[in-house]
Specification:
heterodimer, A: 384 residues, alpha+beta, Thiol Ester Dehydrase, Chain A, ten-stranded antiparallel beta sheet, two-stranded antiparallel sheet, globular, B: 384 residues, 28% strand
Chain lengths: 384, 384
């Protein structure tokens, strides 16, 4: 089965690129981890990003909020895009269908929300490949970036949100040779560091805007957001995120076997143990990570994007609406790394529409920027 | 780092005396899932590799003797594994007693009254029922805590009861004894893999499903078809957690607040700080605990046993009791072969007793269980 897929030295071929191009614009439904939005599902996601806003957690608070009911954090919708494709009619996910065996890294994403998902909504997804481009990557060599658009639609037909999801593909032989990250030092922390992190986490909840309106009139260009801390990254933290966001690549035992038969491109063979695992395993299995040119496990791109959305929702308050979040992952977030999120208001985009634009940055303990983002937020108006 | 200072990680007479004083104290159990949903059922079934359409397919379930979507028996674990974020959630019996002392689930006994259905909201309460001293799996001093958990529905009836045995070991001792530290880790060849695939490919066909297994056709000595679970990977452990949830994976700010409230829910070992559950997936913390690699959850093997039984008994059977004992760790890389046979048939009550075992690739028995099943009768007493 997965023996046909050379995940270690898979190549970016012209035929593979042509095949992708032939699939442009073809829409298909995707299975979702959550379908009905429930209190349990909302809390699982909020817990996985460390977001303790009572808007997601408390019925009474949520009912008294402008939403009038339990709503979910914007990126909770990841859980409506991620589920294992256990039936033939589910098709395959882009990284296994296109250029199987070639390393896929989450490069960027563009979310657009029309509203927040709310308890009781039933939301399913539809995907479509919208762009394929060939270029030079930061690892060098030929790379391919493909963009998949997922629309999240209620059973009533309302589009709640849309996300354009960019994956960059690299040949693993290339990424290993370049050693861009293989020798990056891994983080070690002292008791003083831990104290600093604990103090930061203590301070954060108090900085959350919450039920107090942040009016568009009081926002100034140059005003800062955060900082907000996420980390140090551990497998525990990754498991925590997955528990809320769901997973398309963790079926087990008999069902994993059936999944592997349907999706040979989603499987990788462990070079030391001879175990067939899924392409999600490099995130937590160092041997696979090293074979992909990374010194250890690393986060899932959507974790950092969810973190950015947390920075924004904490800042904007419960009356705001995050309408747009565009992010680029620029460096890996490795096990042990801490991520400091900061932001700055860059423009009052449209006073009549009450839209404010914000620039976001994720920085690790080496002062490297690992992700950047830009968000648009709709704020309440003092006189309406 | 914990509250208990010098006692952290030690079984002292004073600490033991405090545990004994807690016998009889009732605590609420936070649920990961609170309301039974299709998603929750499917996430659990996916995590144990259980593809029975009874859990997955509305139409099939509606036409079954259960007349609707119900959950696999051990799904109820997911209603016992919520994060204890609020003071009213209390603390776990592992963090509250003998903090820092290694905890492994040694045995559990489930007694199910009836299946649970989509839409039901469940509550659970736990009582520390017994504390005793044993010679444990690692050979040294072992403290055994018996926790009795009752799960009730919103209608007020008890849907199940669980006796949950947690064994406590000093990590210094488990490391020094090296009982498992040098156990060889599994490495698999392509031929092994072909054998696993052959097994997985035929398992679903052996599932009894909609065809009733009548009490009249069961004989003492009948064997249950073998079932394979493994090789165990971190991916598989995460898959299982995605179904049952976790009380120990809050993230970032929520984690900091959780640990501020319950410092002993952290594991501080070998300069690392993580949750007490982290040795399951963190190889360094596993070794610090005397195990050569990560290892499964006892609940996982108990859930696997329940899968063996539900596949065998058919949709019209009802698993009323499952008493499982863990005898050895199931390490990452291990395969588990489940087997069972009928040891008693009571036609008057339509009850059958099964003896079950779990065996790894070293031919070691890693768990044993006794199950009781109520089967339909040809004479008309049908249905669970």
């Amino acid at each position: 089965m997965a023996d046909d897929v050379d995940w270690r030295d898979g190549k970016i071929t012209d035929a593979g690129i042509d095949f992708m191009r032939s699939r442009l614009g073809k829409k298909h439904p995707i299975p979702t981890w959550n379908r009905a939005v429930t209190k349990d599902g909302i809390e699982h996601f909020a817990l996985g990003i460390g977001d303790n806003n009572p808007l997601w957690w408390e019925d009474a608070y949520a009912q008294a909020s402008p939403h009038g009911k339990r709503v979910a954090p914007p990126c909770y919708l990841y859980s409506h895009t991620r589920a294992p494709r256990i039936k033939p009619e589910h098709g395959g996910q882009s990284v296994e269908v296109y250029l199987p065996g070639v390393l896929g890294i989450w490069a960027g994403e563009h979310w657009r929300w029309n509203r927040l998902p709310a308890e009781g909504d039933v939301i399913t997804g539809q995907a479509e490949l919208v762009d394929v481009s060939v270029g030079e990557g930061r690892f060098g060599g030929r790379t391919v970036a493909h963009v998949e658009r997922i629309s999240l639609v209620t059973v009533e037909g309302e589009v709640v949100a849309e996300v354009d999801h960019t994956i960059k593909r690299f040949e693993r032989s290339e990424t290993r040779e370049r050693r861009t990250y293989l020798d990056r030092p891994l983080a070690r922390y002292s008791a003083a560091d831990r104290k600093r992190f604990a103090d930061q986490y203590e301070a954060e909840a108090a900085a959350r805007r919450g039920g107090r309106e942040r009016y568009v009139e009081e926002v100034r260009v140059g005003e800062t957001l955060g900082p907000m801390l996420k980390g140090p990254l551990t497998i525990t933290n990754m498991v925590g995120w997955l528990l809320g966001g769901g997973s398309n690549l963790n079926p087990t035992n008999r069902m994993l076997h059936e999944f592997g038969k349907l999706h040979p491109g989603a499987m990788m063979l462990h070079p030391e143990t001879g175990i067939l695992d899924t392409i999600e395993a490099p995130h937590w299995e160092p041997v696979f990570a090293q074979a992909s040119g990374l010194p250890t496990g690393y986060d899932i791109g959507c974790m950092r994007i969810s973190w950015f959305s947390h920075l924004v929702t904490d800042w904007m308050g419960d009356h705001g609406l995050l309408t747009d979040l565009q992010t680029k992952i620029v460096k890996p977030n490795l096990m042990g790394d801490v991520t400091w999120l900061t932001g700055e208001v860059t423009g009052i985009e449209d006073a009549a529409e009450r839209l404010v634009s914000v620039q976001l940055t994720a920085t690790n303990q080496l002062d490297e920027v690992t992700a950047i983002g830009s968000a648009k937020v709709k704020l309440p108006q003092r006189i309406s | 780092m914990g509250q208990s200072g010098a006692e952290y990680g030690r079984i002292t007479d004073a600490a033991l005396e405090r545990v004994r004083r807690a016998v009889g104290v009732r605590t609420p159990v936070a649920g990961w899932n609170r309301t039974v949903s299709r998603e929750g059922i499917e996430h659990f079934a996916l995590g144990i590799g259980d593809d029975n359409p009874l859990w997955w397919d509305d139409d099939y379930a509606a036409a079954s003797p259960l007349a609707g979507r119900t959950a696999p028996p051990c799904y109820l674990h997911s209603h016992l594994r919520g994060p204890k974020l609020q003071p009213e959630h209390g603390r776990s019996n592992v963090s509250a007693h003998l903090p820092g002392v290694f905890a492994l689930v040694g045995a559990e006994t489930w007694r199910w009254r009836r299946p649970v259905r989509v839409g039901e909201t469940l509550r659970a309460e736990s009582t520390l029922a017994e504390v005793s001293e044993h010679q444990g799996r690692f050979g040294g001093r072992t403290i055994r805590q018996l926790e009795r958990i009752s799960v009730t529905s919103d209608a007020g009836d008890e849907v199940a009861e669980l006796d949950h045995v947690i064994d406590r070991f000093e990590r210094d001792e488990t490391r020094a004894r090296r009982t498992y530290l040098d156990r060889p880790l599994a490495v698999w060849s392509a031929a092994d893999w072909a054998r696993f695939e052959g097994q997985y490919a035929q398992e679903a066909a052996a599932r009894r499903g909609a065809e009733p297994r009548f009490i009249e056709e069961v004989q003492s000595g009948d064997g249950l078809a073998p079932m394979l679970k493994g090789p165990l990977t971190l991916t598989n452990i995460i898959g299982f957690l995605l179904g049952i949830g976790s009380p120990n994976t809050p993230a970032n700010r929520t984690a900091a607040q959780f640990y501020a409230r319950d410092p002993d829910a952290r594991l501080v070992e070998a300069g690392l700080v993580d949750t007490i559950e982290a040795p399951h997936w963190d190889a360094a913390l596993a070794r610090a605990s005397g195990l050569p690699s990560g290892y499964d959850f006892a609940r996982q093997r108990a859930s696997w046993f329940s899968h063996l039984v539900t596949d065998w008994m058919g949709d019209a059977g009802f698993l009323t009791e499952l008493e499982s004992k863990i005898t050895r760790p199931n390490l990452i890389g291990d395969v588990t072969w489940l087997a069972g046979r009928v040891v008693a048939v009571e036609p008057a009550t339509r009850c059958v007793t099964l003896a079950l075992s779990a065996t790894n690739q070293l031919e070691e028995i890693t768990a044993k269980a006794m199950a009781r099943v109520r089967l339909p009768s040809r004479g008309g007493d049908a249905g669970p």
